[in-house]
Design goal:
With 217 residues, the protein is of the alpha/beta class. It has ten helices and six strands, in the order βαβαβααβααβααβαα. Helix 2 runs antiparallel to helix 10. The protein binds adenosine-5'-triphosphate.
């Protein structure tokens, strides 16, 4: 059984930076699928701009018809703060013995020691870090030590055990961020070509970040 990739985020909104990263991981790491899991109630940040339902809808339309991509609504359905460890423990129980790879951007990886029960994450899954520009792998501190102990350059290591390794993988760098997209729409500009058009249509219909100019819809 091929490993499952897990890609969590606020996805406020989902964009091509996320989708391209997930696709390169799907192919290079030989995942059976990548599950996009929008956070219901993100514990590390304040209110999202779009609601959980809107963010889930944007992820759904972004992955619709894309082989190997799955939208997973479990964190939106679950009450209380969305902790990644709870999601991984659930997925582990549903997929005994199967390899699971948690995909994180390097910025997210560097914040890992602030996550709830972060030291249990590697018991449930591998961590796959997508390398983004301007971010260097830590060589000191708790993450430096963890990389020393658990880091691997071999993709096969992620297939040969269900959890416990860390693999850093370079992906095509698309300098797109959800924050920039929200600011762009708030400023009256159009996010076209930064995301699949069905996602932009959800933004237009829901007006979750502001109104889009009708002439281009
Ligand atoms: P925001 O600007 O609101 O912080 P974001 O664009 O960073 O959002 P998130 O939903 O917070 O998006 O990110 C989900 C995951 O995707 C994180 O692991 C993050 O590191 C990664 N990620 C975000 N943008 C990119 C990108 N352009 N390329 C690769 N990975 C990305």
């Amino acid at each position: 059984m091929m490993p499952i990739g897990v890609f969590g985020g606020t996805f406020d909104p989902v964009h091509y930076g996320h989708l391209r990263t997930a696709f390169e991981m799907l192919q290079a790491l030989r995942f059976a699928e990548v599950r996009f899991i929008p956070c219901g109630d993100p514990p590390h940040r304040g209110e999202t701009s779009a609601s959980a339902t809107e963010r889930l809808e944007m992820v759904r339309v972004a992955v619709a018809g894309q082989p190997g991509f799955v939208a997973d609504d479990r964190e939106v359905r679950r009450d209380g703060p969305s902790y990644t460890i709870d999601t991984l423990v659930e997925l582990r129980a549903e997929n005994p013995g199967r390899s699971i790879g948690l995909i994180l951007g390097m910025d997210a990886f560097l914040g890992l020691p602030r996550w709830h029960r972060w030291d249990e994450i590697l018991d449930a899954a591998h961590i796959v870090v997508a390398h983004r520009p301007g971010w260097r792998a830590p060589d000191i501190g708790p993450l430096g030590e963890l990389l020393d102990a658990r880091g691997t350059l071999r993709v096969d290591d992620l297939h040969e055990s269900p959890a416990g390794r860390i693999h850093i993988h370079a992906v095509t760098q698309l300098e797109i961020s959800s924050t920039e997209i929200r600011e762009l729409v708030e400023a009256g500009r159009d996010p076209r070509f930064l995301m699949p058009d069905p996602v932009r249509q959800v933004i237009a219909a829901s007006k979750c970040y502001g109104e889009l100019d009708n002439r281009y819809l």
